[in-house]
Amino acid sequence: MPKRFVSIWFRHLLTDWKKIRQPSLKGKAIVFAEPNHGRLVITATSAEAEKYGVIAGMVVADAKVIAPGLEVLDGKPGHNLKLLKGLAEWSLRYTPLVAVDLPDGLLLEVTGCTHLRGGERDFLKDLTGRLKEFGYDVRPGMADTIGCAWGVARCAPYDLIVPEGGHRMAMMPLPPSALRLPTDLLIKLQNLGLYQVSSFIHIPHAVLRRRFGKEMILRMLQALGQEEEFLVPLKEPVPYSERLNCLEPVSTRPAIEIALKTLLDNLCKRLYGEGRGLRTAIMTYYRIDGQSGKVAIGTNSASHRSEHLFKLFALQLDTVAPGLGIELFVLDAFQVEPVNEKQNDLWAAKPGADSEVVTEMLDRIAGKIGTEGIRRYLPDEHYWPERTALPTHEIRKKPDSEWRRDKPRPMQLLDNPEPIEATALTPDYPPILFIYKGKRHEIKKADGPERIEREWWLEEGEHRDYYIAEDQDGRRYWIFRSGHYNGEQSGHWFLHGFFA
Amino acid sequence: MTGAKEEIISKLRQDILQWEGFRPPLPGMAGSFELGPLEQAFPNDVFPTGTVHEFISLCPEDTAACGGFIAGLVKTLLQHGGACLWISATRRIYPPALKLFGVDPDLVVFVDVPLIRDVLWVTEEALKCEGVAAVICETGGMNFMESRRLQLAVEKSHVTGFILQKDAKRVGTTASVARWRVRQVPSEPRPGMPGVGFPRWQVDLLKVRNGNPGSWTVEWSKRKFRTIIPIEPAEQLRYYA
């Protein structure tokens, strides 16, 4: 099946936009101008200004002479790209593959999309009709190749829909400018009397290349479909994506829920068939007023159970603002992983429960507090206390090594060791007392020192000599001296944890 | 005749216990907590699982002691699989230490809740989940209604919950089955040895439904609890003689 492309040409993109923003300008000749080498040069014109013969590239002073009452507005470089991006995003409701075609067009790949709107003619009618309703003066073109659609949109007087396989015939009567060629080449062709594509398309390529360069051949071949050309889509299409067009715009919560359920059921059916489950998904909704919004979820393990995923979305459905109504829902699964059918390796053998229950519960919690807050710890082969436990967000990752249990470790560890005042009489002996937060602790029993060297390949600093100290009330602390004993009574002593 | 009456009464007593949230352990599930004399404080002489236990902590040292005691209990709960969640807004627990109390730290899922008011919501959600064996929750305090919600959740799911209350001023009446206080007491090194001995706690059972509150000294040694029975002074002398 051949591909089908639509090219949309916005004839007066910037001025149309301005007129939509300021309806008082309707019917007036307006131009946008930017300073260029000390002169104001026109960059965009309206249809009314063109009637006077004002064209882009003209100096404003000249244009004002031939067009009295011309309104000149300040143009911004890159403004058209911004507008086109907005329009491209709007047209995502027609096809997932939309590209911006600078300076004044859009390119849509509509292969397999047109039947959704009742055929190619109705599809194009709907698309251009709505753009015209907004106030844009557009001309579409539809063909099997990007080049042909582009040429037809801009140069063909009629027959804007080129039938399948008809692109070669359609190109023949068009002027050379339909081939997306640079201006100097077009002037050259004009001077040589080559007014139509048909007048030079039969000339051998080697001859053309010698006279007009490689680009012309490439453009010709692209228009004829002999050279592959690719769209650079505005958004990467998501391989696991579902769309739902509403016959009527919906705005009530039950309707949104039904739409979401339908999308999830379809997606989950497909995921189930492929033995996969989704980890992250985003539901995007498009409103009739051109606005859109998003709801995102994530799961702790790949899931294709639509009831569960629906519950995760339901937690956030309150944030959906339907406005006047939503006409399109798109569900994209950005991260898809194979589902582990027997998910019982971690939560083995608890009677009456399987792991799915737990991961689904964790998903619900993650929906409320975010996934960052849920973590497990795996042993990491470090002696430095802050690094012995490696946090992970994976729920099913197995430890690579064993947890150490040969040394006592405190139940509570302070994130940052807190300085204490300690009195140690003998070097390398535990202190006899220390003061922490104004309270005096006399050390009755102590173990240590356990020297832990800093990992010099990771960071620089002093080593630590740890002591387990038990005070007069039987409370047990983990304290350390940073660096060597230097004769001072206090200083360099820290409290790092509390033992059980 | 009298025998039949007694039988009926004892049967009714058992029923009442069940209605109050105590369930006899499932056959084959009666993992012993090896709490020794402590277990006699509970109805049926069995540590009640599938209920909510409250722990009161006044200072970080208490929190550490409670953590150790709870970890010792969780070790038994995890013997038959299931997940364990540690929910907190201000967590300082050092995972490798759990290994010393027989719990594999990688089996515990730590949930750090950014807002303290969400802690109980997350805890309730976790307690409702039947695939979970134990839930530990560190919170400031909770009121009667919140505790009743948690208790109702576990009665359905048979999950054991441990609520660590750090704000002693806010501790009021609650629907929990037991209220504990665990404090550190001086350890006893082996005779003739220097240094610090095994972790030893003063365990006070302040409140227990249908049981007898009491106070014990418990030590964690050789991977299990050991209740220390104070030695009579005369005996002590003989011991050291």
TrEMBL record, chain A:
Pfam families: IMS. Residues 8-150 form the UmuC domain. Keywords: DNA damage. One of its GO terms (biological process) is DNA repair. It comes from the Bacteria. InterPro entries: DNA/RNA_pol_sf, Rev_trsase/Diguanyl_cyclase, SulA_CellDiv_inhibitor, UmuC. The keyword DNA damage applies. Belongs to the DNA polymerase type-Y family. This is Protein ImuB.
UniProtKB/TrEMBL annotation, chain B:
This is Protein ImuA. It comes from Mucilaginibacter gossypiicola.
